[in-house]
Design a protein that fits this description.
This protein is an alpha/beta fold. The chain contains 15 helices and twelve strands. It is globular, with a radius of gyration of 21 Å.
């Protein structure tokens, strides 16, 4: 239940009788709201270790998507950060794509993924990426209307597909977070999220090693063991934690450290909803959520020196927790539902019935 699934959950509220198609589904890992819908999977669900290793089956996903029979529907909504938009709706059905990002691993972050991959993956990536790019661009023509989750992603859609996109920021459950009194704020900074190379958790660990300042890292992922090896005595690597633990650390940290470039980035909004400021890399979705020198500070190059300077500026920031909470509230779940419902009504020319 990460960002993409939270969007799906909100779409389920807008379209309470909709069917859901996906490559792989683990019923134990999804919400009751999603499970209440009819869920159909592609043949990838039947392949070995599909629930755990579904990403390895990426080369088969275009073929799997094109085998889905959508003839019974007059409206198809794809939620896309991989190849989901490649489905083939039956004419004259309308296809709206809510795009979290064109596939990062073949477009804007291809070189970063390539450089961090092992030898066998490196050998396979160039021909596979070439094939997927060709297919990805061609299937953009199967979409009648694009909606991007941020202005950053709208620019990518324009660059790669030559298509315009409306911008509707994804839903954030801001009501689940609360600020605490100033007297309860701790003496540590926090970094949270999946520990993968493009999010640059190594940068945060290196900076706080040099600062000899406290940093708590919450999250799992492929870099977890590497970070534990390089973490100094002031850096605590907690790994994956229950939501209540994450929520506690959001509210009690001095500030959130967000060193990667994200398409949107829900984590900074959750931190602001908890009344805490954000230190963020000044590119990507964070620039659309964090207000410079009010709800956080930015650094412009992903270097240890720049991040250390940003921490120093954060220490001197005249910060009001109420400003952060107010800013986060602009990305509430009900705001997304209202905006997306209105957009669909405008595109289809049909008023949607409100759920009972």
């Amino acid at each position: 239940m990460r960002g993409g699934e939270k969007v799906l959950e909100a779409l389920c509220d807008i379209f309470p009788t909709a069917d859901i198609y996906t490559h792989v589904c683990d019923p134990a890992a999804i919400s009751e709201t999603i499970k209440a819908h009819t869920i159909r999977t592609t043949f990838i669900q039947t392949l070995p270790y599909a629930r755990r290793m579904y990403k390895r089956y990426l080369p088969l996903m275009p073929m799997a998507l094109e085998q889905i029979d959508l003839g019974a529907y007059d409206l198809v909504i794809s939620s896309e950060s991989g190849p989901a938009k490649g489905v083939i709706p039956t004419s004259p059905a309308l296809h709206i794509c809510y795009c979290h990002s064109p596939m990062r691993y073949i477009w804007n972050m291809y070189n970063r993924y390539y450089d961090s991959s092992r030898l066998v993956t490196r050998l396979m990536m160039p021909p596979m990426a070439h094939y997927l790019r060709t297919w990805d661009v061609a299937t953009a023509n199967r979409v009648d209307d694009f909606v991007a989750n941020s202005t950053t992603v709208a620019h990518r859609i324009k660059s790669y597909y030559r298509r315009d996109a409306a911008v509707i920021h994804p839903p954030v459950d801001t009501a689940s977070f609360r600020p605490v009194p100033a007297s309860e704020i701790g003496d540590y900074y926090l970094m949270a999220g999946e520990l993968v190379s493009y999010k640059r958790p190594d940068l945060a660990v290196e900076a706080f090693n040099r600062l000899n300042a406290k940093l708590v890292v919450i999250g799992g992922g492929e870099m977890l063991n590497q970070l534990r090896k390089i973490a100094g005595p002031t850096v605590t690597i907690m790994g994956s934690q229950p939501f209540d633990v994450l929520k506690h650390h959001y509210a009690h940290c001095k500030a959130l450290v967000f060193p990667g470039e994200e398409d949107f980035g829900i984590v900074p909004v959750e931190a602001m909803a908890s009344g805490r400021p954000v230190i963020a890399f000044g590119r990507g979705g964070a620039t659309e959520t964090v207000v410079a020198n009010k709800t956080g500070v930015f650094f412009q190059t992903q270097t240890t020196e720049e991040l250390i300077d940003a921490v120093d500026r954060m220490e001197r920031l005249d910060f009001n927790p109420a400003d952060a909470v107010s800013r986060a509230a602009e990305f509430r779940r009900d705001v997304f539902v209202d905006r997306f419902r209105t957009h669909v009504e405008q595109v289809t020319g049909t008023a949607l019935a409100l759920p009972a």
